[in-house]
Specification:
heterodimer; A: about 290 residues; mainly alpha; MetI-like fold; two-stranded antiparallel ribbon; about 75% helix; about 0% strand; B: about 425 residues; alpha/beta; D-Maltodextrin-Binding Protein, domain 2; 2 domains; 6-stranded mixed sheet; 4-stranded mixed sheet; about 15% strand; Bact_solute-bd_prot1 (chain B); Extracellular solute-binding protein (chain B)
Chain lengths: ~290, ~425
């Protein structure tokens, strides 16, 4: 091995190391340092010790944003899994136009989130929205889809589910197609019902897929931002204010970079914790 | 390696942000009127002062001019002069020491005294006693009314007191298609809890009710008073009785021109729009903001002031000030009005003979010109955005959703602002 050959491996990994150092390692370390500082971008940083952490625990709006995000996840994840699995089951059977339906379900996934959100905003408007116009036309009362603090998060969860369900249908479909047909044939010989086959063959066999879907939905749900930002600005009465939106607001509306980094750091730990619990639960239960 | 050198060179030179020419750089707003204004005055300056080269540039495109300015401050790529800075942000930049204290420049104080009255000067003086902004232009927020529609009602005519306005709302509100829901309202004003939206509903009404009282004095919230409570109650009633729409009315046409609403709180920019798109026979008038029934004295409003600043990256602040002076002397102010339809922030605008010709030619702008006597900006407070955000939260809970009494909402907002200010 020549002296030049010895350096080739280092040269080959250097671009990745450089990318990692600049875009991952440095921002992470810098954010941790920021959590101990007060900084509004334009003035010099000021060391504040643990003040940002103490503030976090007293910040009622942040905890409401966390609560809202968890509420969103509780509505969104089961809805996403049930609908995606049901659609995948249907598409897994020999039905006419299966390719068309696969493409149709996937279409919203590739449409810009902003476009989808604006469309749904038009659909869900109280006075001008198409949904309420239909309700009025059939003599049903209008629903304040986005204007009632108790309803708005459900509307957003349904919209996000509609947008993302196509991706999970494809994932489930892949999972379902890996289940060996011999298991079902054996179950048929034993006289198992459709539900029994689903419960005792399909679900355990697609367990890894379910876990993937749960984790992806959870992380996606935790990063809820575009939809409430465009549709409701976090309202009504902060009922759709997500944690990411609140972190964004602290950083780019008030320029509280130190506090915002603290919220982000705490939030990342929370996501890690929730995903770890999910992993344990999903592996044990199914 | 030698092949990579030109690429590295290009990358390095493109990263170079220092200006190589000696010209002063003047950033203007990027609307057509203000670009024409900047171009005209820059060309004039270049002819008069070839020894002090200067070029104008519309502010780079971005989500908002505030974000662009912040990015340029952080990247130290600020222009020498920026015209169009919202008054509420000046204090933050002043405290960060990125602005030139203009009162240290020769001729500034004398000029300011001829242009502005003492209350205006007090309003723009920073907490450290220096002045970092040239008061430039304003757009007073007023009530524009569909006079034909409102004159047909039995209610009192504008300008309105709260009870007359509510009565007009009661009479004007209608369910035209009989589906059981209102589809014609007295007005609409943005309901979202976004801080700057309060500058166009709560704040002008508060200034009108209180004869221009501040929100913050000596780092303390001073708006827990009957005026603010009354404004919240008035707005709450407008929504409670469905006189104001809660939803943005942006179907196919402007709701005011479509007569879906009959009043709006807006600035002089609306006049150009209405004149361009109104139907034949559509009549409207501009009036002061509604006031409490027992109100006495002049009716103040929010002036939406945008001012001119010099950044401390400027190598020749005196020359920059001399250029700014050409923008804000009487000929500069007149051209501003002619080219942009906006108003200069100067005393006695409506009675100054120098501007009389323009106002006679544009009578629809006259009410706004008169209103410039009674306008306020925002208080000099580094966290004014958060102050309005706190008010917005309480506004939503009380005014829009009726979940709090006006007294509780204003008290809670004032307490939260005091906590924010460290009291």
């Amino acid at each position: 091995m020549t002296r030049r050959d010895k350096w080739i491996p280092y040269g080959l990994v250097a671009p990745y190391i450089l990318h990692f150092a600049v875009f991952v390692a440095f921002p992470v370390v810098f954010s941790v340092v920021l959590t101990f500082h007060s900084w509004n971008i334009i003035s010099p940083m000021e060391f504040v010790g643990l003040a940002n952490y103490t503030r976090l625990f007293k910040d009622r709006l942040f905890w409401q944003a966390i609560y809202n995000t968890l509420r969103f996840l509780i509505i969104h994840i089961p809805l996403q899994i049930v609908i995606a699995l049901a659609l995948a089951e249907l598409l897994n059977r020999t039905i006419r136009g299966a390719s068309f339906f696969r493409a149709a379900f996937f279409l919203p996934v590739i449409v810009s989130g902003v476009v989808v959100t604006i469309l749904w905003q038009q659909l869900l408007g109280y006075n001008m929205g198409m949904l309420n116009r239909i309700l009025t036309a059939i003599s049903l009362p209008r629903v304040p889809w986005l204007d009632d603090p108790t309803v708005a998060m459900y509307s957003i969860a349904v919209m996000v589910t509609w947008k993302n369900v196509g991706l999970y249908v494809i994932l489930f479909l892949v999972g379902l197609q890996t289940v060996p047909v011999q298991y079902y044939e054996a179950a048929d010989l034993e006289g198992a019902t459709s539900w029994q086959k689903f419960r005792f063959i399909t679900l355990p066999m697609i367990n890894p897929t379910i876990f993937t879907v749960v984790v992806l939905s959870t992380i996606g749900g935790f990063s809820l931002f575009i939809e409430p930002y465009i549709m409701t600005e976090g309202g009504p009465m902060n009922s759709t204010l997500s944690a990411v939106m609140y972190i964004y607001r602290q950083a780019f509306q008030y320029y509280h970079m130190g506090y915002s980094a603290t919220l982000g750091f705490f939030f990342a730990l929370l996501i890690l914790f929730v995903v770890a619990i999910q992993k344990r639960y999903v592996e044990q239960e199914i | 390696m030698h092949k990579l050198l030109p690429i590295l060179l290009i990358l390095l030179t493109s990263c170079e942000n220092r200006r190589t020419d000696q010209a002063l750089v003047f950033w203007c707003s990027n609307n057509a009127g203000e670009i024409a204004f900047a171009k005209e005055f820059t060309e004039r300056w270049q002819k008069q002062r070839p020894d002090k080269p200067l070029r104008y540039q519309p502010i780079p495109e971005g989500q908002s001019s505030e974000e662009i300015i912040l990015a340029s401050v952080v990247g130290k790529t600020t222009p020498d002069i920026y015209a169009n800075l919202w008054q509420g942000l000046v204090e933050m930049y002043a405290k960060a020491k990125v602005l030139v204290p203009l009162d240290t420049l020769k001729g500034f104080r004398e000029f300011l005294n001829t242009r502005c009255d003492s209350s205006m000067i007090a309003e723009i003086t920073s907490s450290d006693g220096h002045i970092y902004q040239v008061p430039w232009k304003v757009n007073p927020i007023m009530t524009v009314c569909n006079t034909r529609a409102l004159n047909g009602l039995q209610a009192a005519k504008p300008p309105y007191t709260y009870s007359a306005y509510l009565e007009a709302g009661r009479q004007f509100k209608q369910d035209k298609n009989g589906d059981g829901y209102t589809d014609q309202w007295l007005g609409y004003t943005e309901v979202k809890p976004i801080w700057y939206q309060r500058l166009f509903n709560f704040y002008p009404l508060y200034l009108a009710a209180s004869n221009g009282a501040p929100l913050i004095v000596k780092n303390r919230a001073v708006f827990n008073n009957p005026y603010a409570v009354e404004v919240f109650r008035f707005l709450q009633d407008l929504y409670k009785y469905d006189y104001f729409a809660k939803e943005r009315l942006s179907a196919t046409r402007d709701p005011f021109l479509a007569q879906t609403i009959a009043t709006q709180f807006t600035g002089p920019w609306t006049v150009g729009f209405l004149e361009k798109f109104k139907d034949p026979g559509f009549a409207y008038g501009t009036f002061a903001m509604p006031v409490p029934d027992r109100h006495q004295g002049p009716v103040y409003t929010y002036g939406d002031p945008k001012n001119i600043v010099i950044f401390n990256t400027c190598r020749d602040p005196q020359a920059a000030w001399e250029f700014i002076r050409t923008l804000v002397d009487p000929p500069g102010d007149l051209r501003l009005m002619e080219l942009t339809g906006q108003f200069p922030r100067r005393k006695n605008l409506d009675t100054d003979p120098y501007f009389a010709g323009f106002l006679q030619k544009n009578p629809l702008l006259m009410p706004f010109a008169r209103q410039t006597r009674y306008i306020k900006g925002v208080d000099n407070c580094e966290v004014i955005v958060e102050v309005f955000d706190i008010i917005s939260q309480e506004y939503e809970a009380c005014v829009i959703y009726n979940k709090k009494t006006p007294e509780d909402a204003i008290r809670d907002a004032a307490q939260a602002v005091d906590v924010l200010l460290g009291n």
